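Subject: Interface between my chains keeps coming out wrong

I've been trying for a while to get a sensible model of this assembly. When I model each chain on its own everything looks fine, but I need the whole thing in one frame so I can look at the contacts. Pasting all components below, labels as-is. Any help appreciated, I'm running out of ideas.
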Amino acid sequence: MKEQKYVLNSCDSFELSHIFDCGQCFRWNKQEDGSYTGIFKGNVLNVQKDGNKVEFKGICDGNLQEVVTEYFDLNRDYEIIKKTLSKVDTNVSTSIKYGSGIRILNQDLWETIISFIISANNNIPRIKGIIERLSLNYGDAIEWNGSKYYTFPTPEQLIDVKVEDYRKLGLGFRDVRLYETTHMILDKKVDLQELYKEPDTVKVREKLLTLSGVGPKVADCVLLFSDLKRLEVFPIDVWVRRVMNELYIKNEDETKVNKRQIEKIAQEKFGNLAGIAQQYLFYWKREA
DNA sequence: CACCAGGTAATTC
DNA sequence: GAATTACATGGT
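Reply #2:
Try treating it as a single job with all components included. I did that and got this:
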């Protein structure tokens, strides 16, 4: 673990607020100076944007440039993606202008699974609080700039944690799900390393769905937001259902809109970029 | 004091 | 099988 710094001199499609506030991640917090500090994959990092320059500094195990390139998916050309998606229609084009600096992160698979199990029927401030308490209690402390940060606990660090312990941390009814899924992964009933090797997204999805507390929505978020990175996946939550109904279906009662219908439209309009389109639409609708 | 929050699983029809 | 309901917790 060593202190490192890396500066990116040109960066199209990179806005801190778009990336960190679009609902894909829970451990990045805005600082008073406008920068963001976060903990991911055992690293503590502060990201500051100044004009067209992005400065990354923090404590990192490997080479910071490589770590950042991977995590922020910097080798993917979002300008081309935005150009393609903008052609779909004016609504999508508007949403892209609104969230022009969004990038979908390559987050740790295990952490993403647990985080989105916690997200079920929950709100973002509370989700963040629960994840912080989990990390504080069971993760490793990393000191940086006079503050302590806590890594997200590994499955092994949770091996002896009981359902009641989770309940005390304020997890609510998700306590059992977290316990069961942790042990399914520890026992390799679902082998996370194997998931990376499976090219068929449908099969990976089926495997994720066997985990406790993982339903269609959570599985899709994991496929899209983790380093499984399946950009064709289109998670449907209340916001996405709302915006898709408003734009394309126009049913009187959005809660009654058929999920298959939304998936079909998303596939037809956005194809293998559906997940990215979902993020622009979600961010646009939630912020507006 | 109802109602909601990036749903899921169990139950019921 | 599709539709309904319980599930903790903290904030309006």
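Reply #3:
Confirming on my end. Residues 121-123, 125-126, 129-130, 167, 170-175 of chain A lie near DNA strand C (CB under 10 Å from a C1').
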